[in-house]
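Protocol step 4 of 6: structure prediction from sequence.
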Amino acid sequence: MLLVKKRFLEAKGMSATFTDELAIAKADLATKNELQNKVMNIKKQLHKDNKTEYDLLYSFITLISKAGKIMYDGERKRDEYVITKLVARMRGGKNGGDKPTE
């Protein structure tokens, strides 16, 4: 039955080596899929590592911010230790706002 269908498809224009070409393409796709999975796993691990480092940095910034708020309580400089204001100043540099001095 399979041979009859193959002959019918060949009569319609399918090459005689199509099944072999299909097997090669399938193996090639499997190899590429395996490589893609490896790359995605590396990126996932990198993201996880970066998240850990970010959390450590954020906790360090929070500690400094709290210390600055205590140290400069009642003074105008205290606002420089509010995290939302620090982030706003940091982002302001991208828009031409606060530019760092050298």
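Step 5 (inspection) to follow. The mean pLDDT is 87.
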